[in-house]
Amino acid sequence: MVTSSPLSKPADKGTFNGRPSANERLLADLRAKILDGILQPGTVLSIAEMARRYRVSAIPVREVLQLLVGQGLVSHQSRGDYLIATLSSDELQEIYHVRSSIELAALVRACEQVTASDIDRARVEHRALQDSTVAGDPIAFHRHSRRFHQAMVFPCRMPRLLAMLNTTWDLTEPFQLMQHAPRSTHLQLHADHDLMLTALADRDVGALTKAAQAHGHRLTVIVDQAAVTGDLPVTSSAVDDSDDQDVS
């Protein structure tokens, strides 16, 4: 039974500079809740309910939902419903494969032109990821893992490639697969991160390629296991009526 509305929980992603509009705050809040798995794939989104909850009219809600449709995070059904986008296990596997391929291309290029400051940045993110691994916090692991990978590929300095990579991350994050993986798997993934960071610091393309490919394969195994055990998110009921929010 649903005890509290996912929309009522605080989000910590998607901040905007300056004085953001209500649309920008609504977009940031919904993106954060989707990417953190608070609003799970298949969750139905009611325009009227969201307008009431966020104290805005239906027009900005529709505009934000259409933006999220364009980002692949929300789907618009033929009968007019909006819901958090869902994927089959095969589709999720495909996106992880594409993500790994794009990341590998970025890593190879990064290896050619990485600087000392780039390595320092990656090490900072790696330490944060290590802390979340030790703490056994799967949500924090997801967040810091993405930031670590972003720091690793940033030195490629290819904005279009990085934008494509971020799109694939956005499509996989709502499934929060690390919440379904045992601690031993978290430790194995972090060991992969160690090898990848060392290889990048050494500018060793061969070692970096090998470590990144092993890491990608490990992720697809997690998807397979989650599909077999039924841990992939399924359609959930609409949210309840608690805790309005004001984004005006």
Task: Write up what this structure looks like.
The protein is built from nine helices and three strands. Helix 4 runs antiparallel to helix 9. By secondary structure, it is mainly alpha-helical. Helices cover 62% and strands 3% of the residues. The two termini are 31 Å apart. A three-stranded antiparallel beta sheet has the order 1-3-2.
Task: Summarize this structure as a short list of keywords or feature phrases.
globular; 3 strands; mainly alpha; single chain; 9 helices; three-stranded antiparallel sheet
Beta-strand content bin: under 5%
- Describe the largest sheet: 3 strands, antiparallel
Strand order of the largest sheet: 1-3-2
Are there runs of 5+ residues with pLDDT below 50, and where?
1-5, 8-16, 234-243
Helical content stands at 55-70%
Strand segment count = 3
Number of helices: 9
Order of helices and strands: HEHHEEHHHHHH
Q: If you average the pLDDT, what whole number results?
A: 85
Structural class: mainly alpha
Q: Could you tell me the radius of gyration in angstroms?
A: 19 Å
Shape: globular
Alpha carbon gap, first and last residue: 31 Å
